[in-house]
Amino acid sequence: MQDNYSFRHRHILGLEQMSAEDINHVITIARSFKEVSARPIKKVPTLRGKTIVNFFFEPSTRTRLSFEIAAKRMSADTFNISASTSSATKGETLIDTAKNLQAMNPDIIVLRHSSSGAPHLLARHVEASIINAGDGTHEHPSQGLLDIMTIMEHKGSLAGLKIAIIGDIAHSRVAGSDIRGFTKLGAKVYLAGPRTFMPAAVEQMGAVVCDDVQEAVRDADVVMALRIQQERQNDSLIPSLREYAICYGVNDSLLRLAKDDVLVMHPGPINRGVEMNPDVADGKRSVILDQVTNGVAVRMALLYLVLGGDKPGVEQGE
Ligand code: CP
Q1: What per-residue string of b and e applies to 8-36 under the rule 16 or more CB within 10 Å gives b?
Q2: Which numbered atom of ligand 1 lies nearest the CA of 267?
Q3: Which of 71, 184, 225, 262 qualifies as a cystine partner to 258, CB 3.0-4.6 A?
Q4: Cβ(54) – ligand 1 distance below 6 Å
């Protein structure tokens, strides 16, 4: 990292906007925060007096809870609103809602929204830092970063790794961030799935589209399965879940093609027996729960960095 490096992002909208240096910096900070979660008293004063609003227009278990845990472990005040309990149900626009949130002077708004680009829109209308917690089919940057942190913990670096991503690439914002982040760090990303699940021109992001799933998994260092995002599909794009599981489900026999020390990943939630067999999800090669653990550390790092935490004069955690 260059001596004069400085993290300059006030918003976290996607890994598209981040350099390899930025990503490595976030992971370095996340590693330093990870041990806070292992302490008997899991709290540092780093974000004392800061206000963080988690605004989730779509369901979430992992992302929402880990942003809240991350904020609380850094002593920030957190507030949660969802679309169903907000005045969005009465017809208020996203921008009007955001302007009203801004009038209460939060420091950070964490937004999950079904529309691609919603966090980018908000970032143009409010003073608070915006963190994208998943926008439509576009990006899920904190998930991409926690996936990178997990791979680095097990493999040291992503440079030269073969990473297979299998499933519903077209509707997955996780794939959108992972492909961008993994390739920036020097991994080669191979994609496999039904043609109806493959986005147009995905090769322009640096990924290789494989004709069959075996080609993607052969000699892979990492195999990641994705959930079929039925909530983003108007029509059924596959004949049946049973057929999908037979052709693209990650099972033990498919994994025999990968390297012996392959990592098995999934962003969750898992449809067991569809995109991944239970024995694989719970097996010795699975790092799925490591991903969840690292999610808290990565989100602590993002909250810290967007508020200028690594700049001189800002109070550091003890
Ligand atoms: N991986 C992920 O985004 O999970 P949630 O939808 O539960 O937040």
Answers
A1: ebebbbbbeebeeebbbbbbebbbebbeb
A2: 1
A3: 262
A4: no
Phi then psi dihedrals of residue 208, to 5 deg: -110, 125
- Chain center to CA of 285: 20
Q: Which residues contact 166 (CB under 8 A, 6 or more apart)?
A: 191, 192, 193, 213, 216, 217, 223, 224, 225, 226, 248, 250, 275
Q: Residues 37, 71: contact at Cβ < 8 Å?
A: no
Mutate to test the pocket of ligand 1, among 54, 57, 62 (most ligand atoms within 8 A of CB): 62
Tell me the pLDDT of the chain (318 aa) as tens digits.
Answer: 667 899 999 999 999 999 999 999 999 999 999 999 999 999 999 999 999 999 999 999 999 999 999 999 999 999 999 988 889 889 999 999 989 999 999 999 999 999 999 999 999 999 999 999 999 999 999 999 999 999 999 999 999 999 999 999 999 999 999 999 999 999 999 999 999 999 988 999 999 999 899 999 999 999 999 998 777 666 677 778 899 999 999 999 999 999 999 999 999 999 999 999 999 999 999 999 999 999 999 999 999 999 988 765 444 443
* Ligand 1 centroid – CA 315 distance (Å): 31
Closest CA to 21 of 10, 31, 33, 8: 8
Length of the chain: 318
Instruction: Note the helical H segments in 35-109.
Output: 62-73, 94-102
Check if 231 has its Cβ closer than 6 Å to any atom of ligand 1.
no
User: From the CB of residue 161, how many other CB atoms can be counted at a distance below 10 Å?
Assistant: 20
The three-point CA angle 205-10-101 to 5° equals 110
Identity of the amino acid at 160:
G
Q: Is the CB of residue 51 less than 8 Å from the CB of residue 79?
A: yes
